[in-house]
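Form P-L/3: holo structure prediction, ligand 4'-deoxy-4'-aminopyridoxal-5'-phosphate.
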Amino acid sequence: MAEYNLTPVSVPVVKTKYRTIQTAIPVPESLPYFEKLRRSEPRSMSGQPPVVWDHALGAIVSDKWGNRWIDWSSGVLVTNVGHGHPRIVKALQEAISRPLLATYVFPHEGRAELTDLLRQLAPKPDETTVFLLSTGSEATENCIKLAKTYAMEKHGPAKSVFVSFNNAFHGRTMGAQLAGGMPKAKKWLGTGYPDFVQVPFPDGYKNPDVSFDLFLRTLAERNLPPERIAGVMSESYQGVGPDFFPVDYARKLEAYCREHDIVLIMDEVQSGFGRTGKMFCFEHYGITPDLIACGKGISSSLPLSAVIGRSDIMGWYPPGSMTSTHSASPLAVTAAIANLHVLADEKLVERAARLGEWFMPELHRIQRKYPDVLGCCTGRGLVAGIQVVQPGTRSPNPDLATRINVACMQKGLLMFAPVGVGGECVKISPPLSIEEDALRESLAVFEEAVDEVCGAR
Ligand code: PMP
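OUTPUT (holo model):
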């Protein structure tokens, strides 16, 4: 994966409405922070471009040495309404000055308000309840637990198998990784978990067979009839792409789950809250999941996640037995309520769809300039990815992807480190609130960086 060089490099000065680069990059004065982090943290935490964030507002991230970047990361698809939205900041300031900072599972007003707001976003609000947690991994873990509990208790212990997809990412905790689909990331688990099974994802690029038959065949080959399956979970788009389901596949999957009382779970941790131009990405497929895992963009800021789901499944555990210490932590809840109001009032879901209409074709145009190394471009709304490959192949090229990322950083455009199965995907995810001229400016910067890196080979 990405390794960033910490030797400062002199780069051309940039001064525009949205970007300033006026020092060497990384900033020489920032190096002591990297040294401190190197001593006090595991190296797993060092994988992002070497910019020391000082403050972030809207679509702009600033360091304390006067440099400013247009942000194409949104953290990691967190800040859908923009960084430090004034309404979120104001709501937090009020909550802090009250103060109400921790409540455990004792009720507070915000929890009642937020669960009600989230329930209203579900396809069937009257049959839906909401469980608040802190991280995306907790939400997906909880979905796994609920699906297996429901299926095994209702239909007997044999209905215990949990199906997910190759290349899936559901978090880094144990259950989330058991359901994850990246063999390298889950090697530490060893073997011996026959209840967790992965099937190919119909992305059409890494796996050209997008038929639902492949799903059925894969399970049949493993002797897993639907009577054994408790739940199926997928990201609504796979983050490594982004890769979307063909509509026909998603609908067949839904019908299969309905027919056999299998809990259908959509992981919307990354794709939810407007990112793809719909509130939830599964709306593009016209399906109704039983459980929805949420996180990231739910608050655009503080750590909060949720499971939104069918009341009969959600209600399986009696009072006191499905909780978490920081469930509905008041500040995170305050931020999420303000965030949901901003998303609605500023019509940011519609905005993502509208901006994507011209932004996506532009990204495709840039990808097509270098088809031998930019293998494909996918996206919807304001999330996109370009797969960087070894010339003329589909093999990952993480080095070239990282060089594009570094060139952008040096010009005042910030992205998180390339993702993908082998670190080959340049992921593009600006805040949904990004000013249109900032989006156009950043696109021009991206093209310049791609031309320099890909054109100079
Ligand atoms: N599911 C998906 C689809 C994600 O993208 C992520 C985070 N990248 C997670 C789950 C895990 O979320 P967290 O890092 O908050 O645990």
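COMMENT: The chain has 13 helices and 18 strands.
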